Amino acid sequence: MIKKWGLSAAALLLTAAVILPGCASKEQAPKEALKSAATKAMTMTSYEMQSKLTVNNLTIDAPAGETDGTTGMVLNMLKNADISVNGVYQADPRQTELTLVLNLKGDMAMTFNIPMVMTGETLYVKIPSIPLLPLPETIVGKFLKMDLKELAEQEGVEFNPDSLDTKKAQDLTNEVLSTLLGEYDEKTYFSDVKPKDAALPEGVEANQVVRFEVTNNNVKEAITILVNNALPKIIDILSKEEYKEMLQIDEADLAKAKEELQSSETRAEFDKSLADLGNYLTVNKFQLNTAVNKDDFPVYQDLLMDIVVKDPEQGQNVSLSLTGSNQYSKINEKPTFTIGIPEGENVITMEELQQQFGGMSTY
Hints:
Helices cover 35% and strands 30% of the residues. By secondary structure, it is an alpha+beta fold. It has helices at 2-19, 30-35, 37-41, 69-78, 148-154, 166-181, 186-189, 219-238, 241-247, 251-262, 264-275, 350-358; strands at residues 46-61, 82-90, 95-104, 110-119, 122-126, 143-147, 190-193, 208-213, 281-292, 298-311, 316-329, 347-349. The chain has one domain (2-362). Residues 240-267 form a coiled coil.
């Protein structure tokens, strides 16, 4: 069951992840507009961003007695739950601040608000107040300071500064995006949407909106293109020396993955699973819109996914509907950091935190 639908779900999510940074140059053809995306996005040296992901529906339709109370409680909490990230970024000197907000709904509704700051090799995370985990008042609200290089050494692994190289990550996204989009037919998967019909948020001015869409009618073809055409080429991209170092991927593992992907046994199993896909997956909607402004920068993206994953053998159907959005503003302007770099009494080290937890029995 997992093999039959897991690949399809992963394929859809992968497609969304790599297309999100898209942008266009004036009124280009939709596919060409997105193919030029990362090239322009790579010139973003600073910006403010707002991202949000909302679970509109998550239900399990199963025979009576097949789901327990814990599952029901979790589903109740996740339905209509949302996670948002607001942040500011600058490339030089490297500084990023993010505020992550998680809202859980249902009978055990709760909200987590977690500000974070990263400068160079140092990460600061504000310790939140957690209802189910009473923490000493002396540490709640303070920023936990973590030296990423020091932590890596403590874990016995070599610190990889390339993993924090935003420029290399942008280059990788560019190559993967161009390769992936090049495999899909423009007339089948891409279209222009009039900005006035794209339901853009107030304040977002778009010169062009491009839609990438997968339907229940073409999902088999879309996954086939991804697995047979795009993934082998993407593995070749990951094999480049600069990306292997950044991701710390072993070349032998990449070669093995490509060999297995193209083996006759894997192809036969994939073809069999794909032939039965209609019994396991229904795509009600999968749309990804990318809006660009008059300066050719991506200013807004939104994703709508509504699928049903079925297990006819167990008589279970899992319905998942979610929406996501990503908005950029003040691109390449002087950034304004609202949190700043934590210091003084507002900071607690890992050693101090461990000491506080060691004395929690007194609280």
